[in-house]
């Protein structure tokens, strides 16, 4: 087997953060090569270099053993590299056909349309996809959009297919279908690179696996047959994470109740479908689920930035109908949002401002007319020490903090005072192991202080590590509820099976 | 009767510059560039149009060509600033208005307030003489008809060519366009430049066909009205004609009403186009929910390796 | 040889990177470089118009800064500029692009003139009442676009600008009609009585507009830098999504800032009417709107720097004024100079925000 895509000594940094440090990688023709690693391990960055989106700071890229310069997506296409990004690169209000013409049109408009229309139907027939070329992309389901992307790269003549976490958005059945299809592509001689953090996929469908951690290649090119899940997860995570089982404790009073919540997405699809939830003081409730099953909408409803179509929302005994964010906060709900720099922090403002913005009303930092800057400064310094926020002074711009420290800052702010409910949405996404542990400890500690913590996470390890009670969200519904310790495989099954 | 004939006859002359500028702005905004400097670019187009008309043997054609060339240059500079140097589009746009006013104020002195004969309307025997609609349909200057052809061309370009498709993709989702191998910067720069040509032409038209004179700051907010018109037109070229006709109709009404001696205070009449524009903006926001039609990446600079 | 060197070029691609951190020294030198570049271009334009270098130096430096009459006229010129600069800064901080400062100034002047015309209130309180009316009229004129923006998301750049024209034509209508000066029948308002004019403070021509500017500055500084509203509005300006999510009253803050901006612009109209023109005129606001934008932009929307930049801008106005007379330069010159300086500074920010980097392919 000849080498298809190879990286040698690749470095890449964004500002001061090194994303890749001397990374290497090599995949062969005719194989499904899994690229495994945690969030932030550098997998996507490495492959974005192959797709021409990022330029490496240093390092060698080879295709079929020849050094190449991939200085743009067009060049990548010319070299036969096709990448399906995690966030699809489709123009939403254009049709499937237009999107593919956009990528691979040649010659005149009519000719392009005709040719691409034929290519779509040819390829669809060949691989058994059913896609309406005239459908507008924003009317398609996620898996249909993914198929559009796959057809797009195939029409572009891609021989090296890179898929970035393709199954994260799919149901179980769809995932298996996709992975089987990828295996067929490999058997036809193509090189398939599967970026994933799911061990299961590696063992079921990959011929070989490369593991990355912290921007470095940890293990390159072993066959999964020679590995055990334990060994592989150890390679992936480094030190084995101590999974402390939480024992069941009897519930205290209910502080948050959701009954029969319905909510639609912006595109009109149903996001939450008769969703029910009961949250008790002093517990960590882990809501497990594959991303895109309604968690974002749930979080936004709780934060008060999205209105629900129907249902009951009772917070601290107060029934609410589409409350404003300030109302929700006044009733004691605080939030660690998934998008740290969108909902959590203002990156261009100081740590000090960010640290106290939600507490100004409490009066501890002066009156409306005169804020007490000394008190704010003191409070911030204390928070920096208590929460071990490294690299921060009160006047530092929040954007300059590393991911973990930024998250600690958000946590410090949201946990200051007495939160009744803390909503934590993917709180450790993109953080390193140590920062993860710190975040988990903080969440546990706040629960023991009586806060009800609602943890929305795609990461089952995280859910199991700190939850008293575990619920599963699938397709906008609560499909199962367990008390810790719960059966992991059962939960995993509920997460991905069709409902 | 005569009132209606005259009003209809003059409406296209007032509508054409607005439609031309709106076309240029549609091309800009479809690629994601918000050019608030239209007013300034129009002024430069007007001055250069007049200068070339006067200095190059009274040829309207040359006036229009050089007027749009001025627009090309300014459009390119604007594009370079906002696309390559990623300056704030609002600040840069507003500054371009003053830049246009300042440049024409500084350079234009020798040509200010010199009446020219400019472009004359066509006359087709019989057709032009049809009552009421004759002059409206068959008695306009050539550029009015060219404007309509331009509208068709721009529509064809945006919706019936690959380049147009790619340009729209750049304005909707530059990340996707980039990943598909489309050079986002190049397209935006191109859009700014071509858009500038239309805006410059619109200015030259103001000077050579509508006013037949160059006066300092003669655009009188028409660049801004064109920007509002684009919102009203929901970024569709052919709808710009409707909007143009609406505003052109109002502007054409002012001198007509003054001539008839209807006792409406003059300055309230002059105010009408701006009030109408404001009304249209509110209507667009209420009824058309214009936010949905706007290109998604309008006004947002694109940096590939941008990581927050 | 050629192919090798071409190959070398192809192997290195210029990429743009967001700068995480910039040293103060570099930041300042980029800014100074841009300023010098802009000033250089302006000087070149002046030289091109036959102005001599030595007289540029004399007008801009010697006569404006090293001479009591010069400094005082700069201060007088700066008073309305400080106000419009503050007006723009207050709105821009929350991303409300108030281009309607001139219209709001007209409204302020109308408010003051109404008080003067109808002799509202006792004479001792006449000036404060005029000031309050001016501020309220300015707020009124800004409130429309503010409400349209927060309720219907109507682009405030266009709406505020359109209101400039509407205010202008309204002033014309009044001045050519009911408010025409009864004495000389000229299209300007009736002259204010002595009690309706801002008195001189006793040093050269400096008048009590200085107090109005100082008062406005202190209030703005206090609101922006010290009040809870100020901290909250910082978040609204930088990250509106987050501001909303953490429960800040975003619409109120945006609309409130816009109206505050209108009130300061109205005060600027009052100062010009009551201290310079002594009446309502239709040329009084010309150019101030853009000057306000320029000042706020160059000052980074901070109150203290706004005052400094406004003072420098005032010296440009004073020098420009006398240059215009000596060399018969057009009015447009000052606007052009401002535009060139803004463009060079805004372009230079690229080098502050981003870093160009040579990315290399194929090196091991």
Low-confidence stretches of chain C: 1-10
Helix fraction of chain B by DSSP (H/I, runs of at least 4): over 70%
Compute the average pLDDT of chain B: 91
State the shape of chain B.
globular
At the first level of CATH, the class of chain B is Mainly Alpha
Number of DSSP strand runs of chain B: 0
- Based on secondary structure, the structural category of chain C is mainly alpha
Strand content of chain C: under 5%
Largest interface: B-C, 49 and 50 residues
* CATH architecture assignment name of the largest domain in chain C: Orthogonal Bundle
Helix segment count of chain C? 14
Q: Tell me what the CATH architecture of chain B is.
A: Orthogonal Bundle
Sketch the topology of chain C as an H/E string, one letter per element. Answer: HEHHHHHHHHHHHHHE
CATH homologous superfamily title of the largest domain in chain C: ABC transporter involved in vitamin B12 uptake, BtuC
Mean pLDDT over all positions of chain C: 88
Number of domains of chain B: 1
Structural notes for this entry:
The complex is a heterotrimer of chains A (499), B (308) and C (364). Chain A has helices at residues 43-50, 73-78, 96-104, 109-127, 142-155, 172-187, 199-205, 229-237, 295-303, 325-330, 340-344, 351-356, 373-386, 403-415, 433-448, 460-466, 488-496, and strands at residues 3-14, 17-28, 32-36, 58-63, 66-67, 81-84, 160-164, 191-196, 208-213, 216-222, 254-264, 270-280, 284-288, 310-315, 318-320, 333-336, 421-425, 452-457, 469-474, 477-483. Chain A is of the alpha/beta class and 499 residues long. Chain A folds into two domains: 3-237, Rossmann fold (3-Layer(aba) Sandwich); 254-496, P-loop containing nucleotide triphosphate hydrolases (Rossmann fold), CATH 3.40.50.300. Chain A has a six-stranded mixed beta sheet, sandwiched between helices. In chain B, helix 2 (38-55) packs antiparallel against helix 3 (60-84). Chain B has one domain (2-115, 126-303): ABC transporter involved in vitamin B12 uptake, BtuC (Orthogonal Bundle), CATH 1.10.3470. The longest helix of chain B is centred in the N-terminal third of the chain and has 29 residues, at 2-30. Chain C is mainly alpha-helical and 364 residues long. Chain C is 72% helix and 4% strand. Chain C has 14 helices and two strands. In chain C, strands 1-2 form a two-stranded antiparallel ribbon. At the B-C interface, helix 4, helix 10 and helix 12 of B face strand 1, helix 7, helix 12 and helix 14 of C.
């Amino acid at each position: 087997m000849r080498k298809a895509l190879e990286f040698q000594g690749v470095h890449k940094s964004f500002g001061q953060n090194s994303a890749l440090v001397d990374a290497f990688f090599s995949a062969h023709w005719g194989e499904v090569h899994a690229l495994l690693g945690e969030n932030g391990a550098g997998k996507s960055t490495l492959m974005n270099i192959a797709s021409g989106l990022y330029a490496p700071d240093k390092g060698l890229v080879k295709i079929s053993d020849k050094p190449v310069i991939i200085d743009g997506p067009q060049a990548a296409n010319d070299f036969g590299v096709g990448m399906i990004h995690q966030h699809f690169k489709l123009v939403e209000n254009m049709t499937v056909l237009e999107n593919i013409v956009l990528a691979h049109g040649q010659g005149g408009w009519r000719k392009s349309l005709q040719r691409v229309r034929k290519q779509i139907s040819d390829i669809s027939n060949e691989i058994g996809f059913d896609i309406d070329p005239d459908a507008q992309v924003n009317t398609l389901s996620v898996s249909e959009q993914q198929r559009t992307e796959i057809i797009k790269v195939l029409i572009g003549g891609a021989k090296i297919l890179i898929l970035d976490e393709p199954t994260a958005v799919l149901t179980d059945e769809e995932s298996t279908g996709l992975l089987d299809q990828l295996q067929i592509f490999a058997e036809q001689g193509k090189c398939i690179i599967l970026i994933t953090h799911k061990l299961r996929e590696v063992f079921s469908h990959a011929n070989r696996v490369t593991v990355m951690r912290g921007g470095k290649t940890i293990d390159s090119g072993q066959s999964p047959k020679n590995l055990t899940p334990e060994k592989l997860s150890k390679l992936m995570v480094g030190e084995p994470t101590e999974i402390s089982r939480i024992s069941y404790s009897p519930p205290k009073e209910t502080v948050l109740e959701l009954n029969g919540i319905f909510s639609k997405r912006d595109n009109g699809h149903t996001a939450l479908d008769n969703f029910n939830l009961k949250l008790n003081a002093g517990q960590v409730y882990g809501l497990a689920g594959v991303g895109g099953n309604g968690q974002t909408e749930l979080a936004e409803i709780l934060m008060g930035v999205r209105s629900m179509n129907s249902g009951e929302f009772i917070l601290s005994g107060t029934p609410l109908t589409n409350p404003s964010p300030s109302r929700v906060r006044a009733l004691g709900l605080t939030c660690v949002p998934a998008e740290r720099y969108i909902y959590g922090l203002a990156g261009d403002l100081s740590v000090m401002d960010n640290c106290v913005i939600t507490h100004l009303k409490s009066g501890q930092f002066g009156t409306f007319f005169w804020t007490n800057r000394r008190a704010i400064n003191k409070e911030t310094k204390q928070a920096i020490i208590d929460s071990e926020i490294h690299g921060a002074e009160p006047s530092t711009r929040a954007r300059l903090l590393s991911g973990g420290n930024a998250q600690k800052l958000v946590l410090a702010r949201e946990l200051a005072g007495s939160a009744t409910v803390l909503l934590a949405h993917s709180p450790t996404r993109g953080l390193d192991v140590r920062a993860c542990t710190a975040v988990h400890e903080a969440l546990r500690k706040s629960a023991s202080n009586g806060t009800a913590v609602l943890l929305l996470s795609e990461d089952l390890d995280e859910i199991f590590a700190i939850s008293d009670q575990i619920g599963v969200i699938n397709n906008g519904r609560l499909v199962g509820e367990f008390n810790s310790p719960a059966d992991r495989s059962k939960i995993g099954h509920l997460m991905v099976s069709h409902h | 009767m005569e009132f209606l004939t005259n009003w209809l006859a003059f409406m296209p002359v007032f509508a054409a510059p607005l439609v031309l500028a709106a076309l240029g702005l549609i091309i800009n905004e479809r690629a994601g560039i918000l050019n608030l400097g239209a007013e300034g670019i129009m002024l430069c187009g007007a001055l250069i149009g007049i200068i070339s008309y006067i200095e190059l043997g009274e040829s309207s054609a040359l006036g229009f060509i050089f007027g749009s060339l001025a627009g090309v240059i300014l459009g390119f500079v604007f594009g370079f600033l906002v696309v390559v140097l990623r300056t704030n589009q609002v600040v840069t746009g507003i500054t371009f208005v003053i830049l246009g006013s300042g440049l024409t104020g500084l350079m234009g002195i020798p040509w200010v307030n010199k009446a020219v004969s400019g472009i004359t309307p066509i006359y087709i025997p019989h057709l032009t003489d049809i009552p009421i609609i004759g002059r409206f349909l068959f008695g306009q200057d050539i550029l009015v008809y060219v404007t309509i052809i331009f509208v068709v061309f721009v529509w064809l370009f945006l919706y019936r060519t690959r380049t147009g498709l790619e340009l729209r993709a750049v304005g909707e989702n530059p990340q996707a366009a980039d990943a598909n191998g489309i050079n986002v910067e190049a397209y935006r720069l191109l859009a700014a430049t071509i858009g500038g040509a239309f805006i410059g032409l619109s200015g030259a038209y103001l000077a050579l066909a509508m006013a037949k004179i160059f006066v300092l700051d003669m655009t009188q907010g028409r660049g801004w009205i064109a920007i509002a018109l684009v919102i009203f037109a929901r970024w569709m070229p052919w709808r710009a004609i409707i909007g143009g006709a609406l505003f052109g109709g109002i502007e054409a009404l002012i001198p007509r009403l003054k001539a008839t001696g209807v006792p409406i205070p003059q300055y309230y009449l002059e105010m009408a186009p701006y009030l109408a524009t404001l009304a249209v903006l509110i209507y667009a926001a209420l009824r058309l929910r214009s936010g949905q039609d706007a290109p998604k990446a309008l006004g947002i600079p694109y940096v590939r390796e941008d990581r927050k | 040889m050629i192919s090798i060197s071409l190959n070398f070029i192809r192997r290195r691609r210029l990429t743009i990177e967001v700068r995480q951190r910039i040293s103060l020294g570099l930041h300042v030198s980029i800014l100074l470089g841009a300023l010098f570049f802009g000033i250089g271009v302006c000087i070149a334009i002046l030289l091109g118009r036959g102005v001599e270098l030595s007289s540029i130096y004399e007008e801009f430096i010697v006569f404006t800064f090293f001479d009591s009459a010069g400094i005082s006229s700069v201060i007088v010129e700066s008073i309305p500029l400080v106000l419009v600069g503050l007006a723009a800064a207050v709105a821009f901080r929350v991303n409300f692009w108030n281009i309607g400062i001139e219209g709001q100034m007209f409204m302020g002047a109308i408010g003051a003139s109404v008080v003067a015309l109808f002799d509202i209130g006792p004479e001792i309180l006449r000036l404060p009442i005029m000031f309050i009316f001016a501020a309220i009229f300015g707020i009124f004129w800004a409130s429309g676009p503010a409400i349209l923006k927060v309720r219907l998301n109507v682009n405030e750049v266009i709406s505020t600008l359109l209101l400039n024209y509407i205010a202008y034509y309204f002033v014309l209508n009044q001045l050519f009609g009911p408010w025409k000066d009864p004495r000389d029948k000229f299209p300007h308002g009736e002259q204010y009585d002595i009690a309706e004019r801002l008195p001189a403070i006793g040093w050269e021509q400096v008048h009590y507009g200085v107090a109005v500017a100082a008062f406005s500055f202190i209030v703005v500084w206090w609101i922006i830098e010290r009040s809870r509203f100020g901290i909250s509005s910082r978040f609204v300006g930088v990250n509106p999504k987050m501001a909303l999510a953490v429960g800040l009253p975003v619409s109120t803050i945006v609309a409130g800032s816009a109206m505050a901006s209108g009130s300061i612009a109205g005060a600027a109209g009052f100062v010009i009417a009551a201290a310079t023109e002594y009446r309502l005129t239709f040329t009084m606001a010309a150019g101030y709107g853009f000057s306000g934008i320029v000042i706020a932009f160059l000052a980074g929307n901070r109150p203290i720097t706004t005052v400094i930049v406004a003072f420098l801008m005032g010296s440009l106005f004073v020098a420009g004024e006398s240059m215009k007379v000596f060399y018969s330069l057009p009015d447009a010159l000052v606007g052009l100079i401002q535009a060139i300086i803004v463009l060079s500074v805004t372009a230079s920010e690229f080098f502050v925000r981003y870093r160009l980097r040579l990315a290399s392919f194929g090196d091991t």
